[in-house]
Structures are given as C-alpha cells and as structure tokens.
C-alpha cells in the first residue's frame, strides 16, 4: 500500500513539472498582449497598490527631505556657481530654438524624430524578486500608453520601455533587465556622431553595453550617449548616459562602449512615458515599395 | 468576518514585498548587494506549519500564481516553488519538534531553497546570466540576512495568528 501512495505522489510531481514547463513556454513567447485573466489580475492588484502607494511615497518623501536638508549648504554653493552661466545658456537656447524653427519652416519640414508627447505616471509597484526588473505604473491603455514606448525618469534619462499594458496599469521593463529583445538604437554625440545599439547590462560593473560601433570610431570618455530615433519607436535625443570605457569586441570588427546610465534604477518614484509624435511608416508599405522598384 | 481576515493578511504581505523594494533605496546598504524580500514565503510557511497544512498549500498555489502574473509575467516558477517548498517543510516538521526556533530555522532553509530554485530556473530560461559565486555573494547572503531580520520580528505574532486560526478550525 505505501508503495502505491509513493507512486501517486511521483505522478503528481511529474504532471506538475510538465504543467510548469508548458506554462513557462507559454509565457516566454513573444506576446503582443497578456491574456484577459492576467490583465484582470494585474489591474485588480494595481488598484490595491495604488491605495498603498500614496502613504508610501509620503513616508519616503519625509525621509528624503531630511536627507536633503543635511546637504543644503554644499548644494546651495554649487548651484550658485552654476547660476551665473545659466542666463547666457538660456538666451543661447532661446536663440537656437528660434533659428531652428525658422529654418524648419523654410525647408517645410514639420515632423521631427525628436518630437514627443509625455504622459506622467507614478510607480506603484516593483518586482520584489529582483530578477526581472519590472516596474508597475498607474497609467494604462485608457491613458494612451502602448507597448514598447520609451520610459524616462524624472531627471530626463531613459530607464526602459513599456513591456505590457492593461486597462489601468502598465508594466515597465528597465534597461538593466537581461532580455535579448531589449535593444535601443543609440548615438554617441561628438564632432562625429557614431551609432550603435544598447544591448545589455553588465551587472558587476553596473554599466550598459553599447555594441556595434564601427571599429575605427574615436570615442572619448565622458561623451554623451542619446537615443538616435532610428529604432522606430523611441524619439530622438533622449539622454541615456555617458561613455566610461571602450573595448574592441570579440572579432575586432566592432567596438563596445560601456555607458554609465544617467538614471538611478533603484530609486524611481515618478516616470514619464514618451510617445513619439512622428509615426513609423507601416512595415508592409515599405516592403511593397521595394518590390515595385525591383 | 474572521474568514476574510486571513486572505487580507496574505494580500497585505504580497503588496508589502513590492512596497519594501520600492521604498528601500539600495544605497542604504550597498547597491552591489541585492536584497530580495521573501515575506510571502515566510507567511505561507507559517500558515502551513502552524495553521492548516492543506490550506497553506492552497494559499501557496494561489499566491504563487498571483506573484507570477503580477510581478514576473512568467507564469509557473512561483506557482510551482511556493507549494513545493511548503510541502517539503511540512514533511520535515513531521520529524522535528514544532518549536518556534526550529520553525524559524526551517523557514530560513526554505528561503535558501527558494532562491536557489528560482535562480536555477531563471538561469535555464535565460532571464539571468549571473554566475553561481556572484549569485551567492551578491544575492543569497544579503537576502538571507534581510529575511532573518523579518523572521525575528514577525515569527511570534505570525505563530499566534495561525495557532488561533488552527484552534478556531478545530472548534468548527
């Protein structure tokens, strides 16, 4: 008799392992959208998290204020020194902006890769197991958020993209997550700009890897890296970080630059979801055109 | 009323994990170390060991699924790990005496088991490429320290809650 029970347990274990593998396989597929029950569960917990997030952000705010007070003096000193340069910079920006608008008008070019409209959102949850680096925000499809939109932290640096959306909440995948599909077309700004793609995160050194830069590119430290807008979804010119180090890749055909991200990936309260104004042409249209040419 | 109190407690701890990660700035410790709260696992274990075993396993299953759907978007890992570990712990308790210290030690061992299991599975499906020694130093040890602190604070209240619940079940 005990032998029989042992077998029953063994079968249960085996069946559950099969179910486990099937479920993981199901959820690892490239999914356009989550299933309806999943969306419902996420929205329902999102509602509860929303209730808790207000007192949480208040408590955190109090502690941060105290921390801020401690270094007010040194901060004030530094800000004052920067203030002198600011007035000139401001007038320069104004002038350049105006000039840019005029030139655009002459060229009759209205759309720009760098134009975008932001949607403000608050972070209401974060993945506690720290493997997946996902955030949950309190805006969803109702507010016009779509999959793959860029997400920017409150200080303007890019932190990730929208992984999935529900009616009232959405999930953000941070740049630090290891996901081969998480790629951003980026540009190193300088006298010559070089293009590459952000393709991963070095956990040990806490640096982003900017790969596929031409081998002859001369890259200096402290050069700024921004999105290039060539990927089709992200707008142009969102800052990512600064170059720390470069090294040739394994075959010597390209270079890899290590980029120190400008955003803090641990302390995120408010984010901005960025919707690009310029529409991406339909892929099928482009394919058709090419065929005609041939 | 009593009936709904227990699911509420579980939901509270479920939300608390996310709130904890969000509130705690990693710089407080050292940003190189990753602290993962496993409060829900501990509560499920105490439920299984002090409250009702089968109900504890069902709570493990339900909240494992919820954890997968809401936090990781990969269904299966926690759905499988929570009940499995609760079951192993309940089997272990048959041999050992149910003393609060013993239960606490078992909970810590269970968290180690959970972390290892989740790491192995994530490694398998290529969510992470962290190597094992890095995993030990960067994740496992800080996580154990954090959860030991949680157990020290919450072990006794949790034991009281679930023992009361078990007593009320016996009365019915």
TrEMBL record, chain A:
The keyword Electron transport does not apply. One of its GO terms (biological process) is regulation of cell shape. Keywords: Cell shape, Coiled coil. Residues 69-113 form a coiled coil. One of its GO terms (cellular component) is plasma membrane. Gene3D superfamilies: Rod shape-determining protein MreC, domain 1, Rod shape-determining protein MreC, domain 2, Single helix bin. Pfam families: MreC. Signal peptide: none annotated. Residues 123-275 form the Rod shape-determining protein MreC beta-barrel core domain. NCBIfam families: mreC. Involved in formation and maintenance of cell shape. Belongs to the MreC family. PANTHER family: CELL SHAPE-DETERMINING PROTEIN MREC. This is Cell shape-determining protein MreC. The lineage of its organism: Bacteria, Bacillati, Bacillota, Bacilli, Bacillales.
Automatic annotation (TrEMBL), chain B:
It is a multi-pass membrane protein. Its main location: membrane. The chain crosses the membrane at residues 35-51, 58-88, 100-119, 140-158. It comes from Bacillus yapensis. It comes from the Bacteria. Keywords: Cell membrane, Cell shape, Membrane, Transmembrane, Transmembrane helix. GO terms for cellular component: plasma membrane. It is found in: Cell membrane. One of its GO terms (biological process) is regulation of cell shape. This is Rod shape-determining protein MreD. Belongs to the MreD family. The gene is mreD.
